[in-house]
Amino acid sequence: MFKKILIANRGEIALRIIRACKELGIQSVAVYSEPDIDSLHVQLADEAICIGPASSSASYLKIDRIISAAEISDVDAIHPGYGFLAENAHFAEVCASCNIKFIGPSAQAIRLMGDKNSARDCARNAGVPISPGSDGTVDSEAEAVKIARKIGYPVMIKAVAGGGGRGMRIASNEGSLVQGYHAARMEAEKAFGNGAVYIEKFIVNPHHIEFQVFGDEHGRVVHLGERDCSLQRRNQKIVEECPSPLMTPDLRKKMGEASIKLCEKVGYSNAGTIEYLVDDAGNFYFMEMNTRIQVEHPITEEVYGCDLVKQQLQVAAGEHLSDHVVNAQPRHHAMECRINAEDPEKGFQPCPGNIGLYYAPGGRGIRIDSHAYAGYPIPSHYDSMIAKVIAIASSREACIRRMSRALGEYMITGIKTTIPFQQAIMRNSDFRKGKYHTGFVEQMLRDGVPVVRKPEELSVF
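The chain above was modelled as a monomer; its predicted structure follows.
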């Protein structure tokens, strides 16, 4: 096992990795940008090194500074978390060249599956269903128009190096295609340094289902069921649950086997997620693969009774997949709400600032993954997520009731958060029946959502 690792990330995922390290007896090194000096991951790591100013491009995306920090602190490995450099094949190669273990898949697997165009080719070659679309990257506006006319509108324009909804546009006609094509390329170039895009048929109102896969470096690959991530706004997930209300045992078996087959085909190791679009008839289509740990991994941990981050560290150290992971069976229902510092009543406008009162919910079946605390200054330079509320119960109905209770207890003042909107989702009758899809949240917003307003301050405190 490693003696010391560097965490090339920030926020709640950095804190999550630090906690796993402590439980395994591993020393942790945090890196941070100047505005993150007061972040909890900096305070709780064994060592902390500043790597630059606020801009991600000058700090958390700066490979040479991260490697320098790793060499100065004499670490054995680097965990990239999610986002930033987590799916950067070049970063994985640089780590290897410096004799530092990259805690994740190989650079080759990241390159194959992290590039969404080559990932579609791999899925096609493995016999996994894919939605109609371009055979490769689309390098001109004229080519985009030709492909869209062939497969029919609506279509989705997607960055090959994309993630988090960036570099993605939906086009319902030629005018929106041309506009979306150039906008997606510009956004992808800015976010990932790669403006290449491809086009695929847009399936209207499907479920977004992802399968958690895990492989070791000895050729063993397993899956740990699915998560339903259909509740999204602008391709950013808001609520996830495991298992999916759409799933049947037969469909889970088919999708799980397809996921394992694809991973074996590319020699995949460590944590990953195969993402699919699934229609109401149970037809599923490969969408992409995330070659990293996911934001929503806690609900799989709670349902299947395993620690995915610890398993990442163990597999990267050369160990076989643990028996409790290989033989894991679903035993609960779990949901996750991503709490963002955004104002739902103002179009989800980001709301950085200083947190005043901070009181997190607790009680049976509630897990909070967060780096926030009273007085914490939320910087404006990064993703707005400040916490994840995970509810675990014996049934979906009980899980919804427990999540509603927890959201009602969560008190954060000084900023606006998405909590009132997530409370509205929990009250929605169609959501309670499991009748939702990727367009559900936008429909709620069009219909007008009554939200629960909380007092800015509580006299009891």
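The chain has 16 helices and 22 strands.
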